Amino acid sequence: MLTTRPRGTNDFLPGEVEKWQFVENVFRDICKEYAYGEIRTPIFEHTELFTRGVGETTDIVEKEMYTFNDRSNRNITLRPENTAPVVRAFLEHKLYSQTQPTKLYYIGPMFRYDKPQSGRYRQFHQVGIEILGAKSPAADVETIELAVKYLERLGLKMKSVDEAGSLTLFINSIGCPACRPTHIRQLKDYLSERLEALCDDCSNRYMRNPLRVLDCKKENCQEVASNAPSILDSQCEECKEHFQGVREYLKAVEIPFEIDSQMVRGLDYYSKTTFEITSDALGSQSSVCGGGRYDGLVELCGGDPTPGVGFALGIERLILTVDKKSKVLPETPPVDVFIASIGSGTSLETFRTASKLRSENISSDYDMLERSLRGQMKYADKINAKITLIIGEDELKRQAAVLRDMESGDQQEIPLSEVVIKVKELLK
Question: What is the pLDDT of residues 95-133, one digit of tens each?
């Protein structure tokens, strides 16, 4: 077991990790353009933050959290999502006393005990944003627009009525505490006549939290949910106006969308707007990004009533999608210079030359295994070196090196004192 990673986790090795660095850096860049600041929360939190914030009847809390007692018998949970921790930090550090709204983004690992499958792991990674303190539908659409533009920069395309694309945006409004009780009563009445068709979890939950039935992924529950009463028929005037505003802002920035009146998302803290972006590259597990509004979460965590909206996007599933639909992800980057040395007396000069090149931000490598010249040149090919410097004992006596362009095969002897200058010229 010492040589096997835990089930549902991954090692990201050179050749793959460059893709992660790329998508993370693109996300950081676009968040800066939208004036978001980065936040980094702890990987574990007090369990109550999630049971109260995410919801006791959600799959996350009932089945998927990694929860344990620490040595002081405090109940701790590895974070299964990051909105509740961001809200906790917002309150703990009194960010509400600063200029509002508070706009934050994050990148990091989350943990859920779930059956590992393509793009879904027990340790998974998310990028996400949160806006706290803004109740306008413009804030809802800013989060959607940022997500869409991020995906488009990674070479993905939104699908519209007259244009093909791999991504589809679904939106819904799930009401607020004023109008949701009416929908819940209607939903309970509808489900009470169909309990035998529901899975065991949904049968047990339907009285406590019937909205969770709408989010169940079991085929029989999805069939029941497809004909359930729609929240859109029970909305109060405030929710109707807000949802109308969301649609108007989406149209203003020409983001195509479809309305899914049964979409509730898997977390209890959502209110009003919910949205999801799916990809046709992921099969049945098609969701790439999801989010929405959570106007009651700050108050639930002990703060004053404060509106909030945001999204989270899974990096593993994103990379799967981009790999299938786009060519923007980088391969292993080439090394600028490989220094081959011939003879035992050349090792110090080889090391010194590599150091000089690295000081000029030129990536460099050299032989550490005492290979033959042929073996060193094979190694230079494997690491995709652009240039090879050859330093032999004869060259060292002349204080020179042989510089070879690996693409053209052209080579020339140059003074060691001019290595940096000549390499820079050739790299241009």
Answer: 999 999 999 999 999 999 988 887 789 999 999 999 999
Would you call 71 helix, strand, or coil by DSSP? coil
User: How far are the Cα atoms of 47, 48, 122 from residue 79, in angstroms, in the given order?
Assistant: 9, 11, 11
Within 13 Å of residue 316, how many CA atoms lie on the same side as its CB?
19
Please report the beta strands in 200-328, taking only residues with DSSP state E, as ranges in sequence order.
258-259, 271-279, 287-293, 308-314
End-to-end CA distance of the chain: 49
Structural domain boundaries in the chain: 17-179+235-325, 337-423
Copy the structure tokens of residue 138: 């413009």
State pTM to two decimals: 0.91
| CATH 3.30.200.100 describes domain 17-179+235-325 | no
Q: Going along 133-194, which residue ranges are E strands?
A: 167-173
Return the closest-CA partner of residue 310 out of 111, 166, 104: 104
**The pair of three-digit structure tokens given for residue 128, joined into one six-digit string:** 């996400």
Contact 260, 272 (CB under 8 A): no
Chain CA centroid to CA 242, Å: 28
User: CA 124 to CA 110: how far, in whole Å?
Assistant: 5
- Residues 337-423: name the CATH superfamily: Anticodon-binding domain (3.40.50.800)
Residues making up the chain, counted from first to last? 428
